[in-house]
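The records we work with from here on pair a chain with its fold. Taken together, the tokens spell out the fold as the letters spell out the chain. The record below shows the convention in full.
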Amino acid sequence: MSYQPHTPHLLPPSAPPALHLPQRALHHGPQELVPPVGVTPAEPQGQEPSELAQRYELLRTLGVPTTASEDFDALARAMAEKAGFLYGFVNLFLEEQTFVGLHQPPADSGYVIVGRTMSRDHGWCPEVMSREKALPLPDVHASPRFSGNHVVDAVGIRAYFGAPLIHDSGTVLGTVCVIDPEKRSLADARRIQDIVIDGGAQVMDGITRASLR
């Protein structure tokens, strides 16, 4: 597969933050989610600056784009559609979480429209990076540890499934994940988790094959 970088869509800093995610049946026009203005992302807990430099060097060596990519967007879309989720992400952990692959509802759907970056301490992907294994949250409110989260408060997400992107060298490049405003049943959690893990494997396989060309 051939990765072609594209200019990322960055939301204007003047855009108002979303307070909640509209229900599926409502159509109030697009809303935008933006990171807090003027906040410098902190280093993820336990991560030395050299790890970020190592990640950048590996991405450069592999020829992986660090901006929006149509191929990564397609992988994010396929993963979200298989899982039946509204949003899908291929997420590289750089100075910020950078969504080189993104699938979301159309701008006029009435759902929150997200940008291509987010602070590294927001959401549940930092936990996936730390534990280096999949994190299934069919209902984020079922766990006090994961219910108090900026994304929950600002967007209203109820379900999250994520998996790490780990290179053969052991370097964790980022994550793949899907999120949705509706919780999922425990009976469906295994199926969704397998979809996300498989999606991560497809991303890493595509990266490896592209680097060998």
Q: What stands out?
A: The longest helix spans residues 186-211. Helices lie at 49-62, 70-83, 125-131, 144-147, 150-155, 186-211. Residues 1-46 have pLDDT under 50 and may be disordered. The first strand starts at residue 5 and ends at 6.
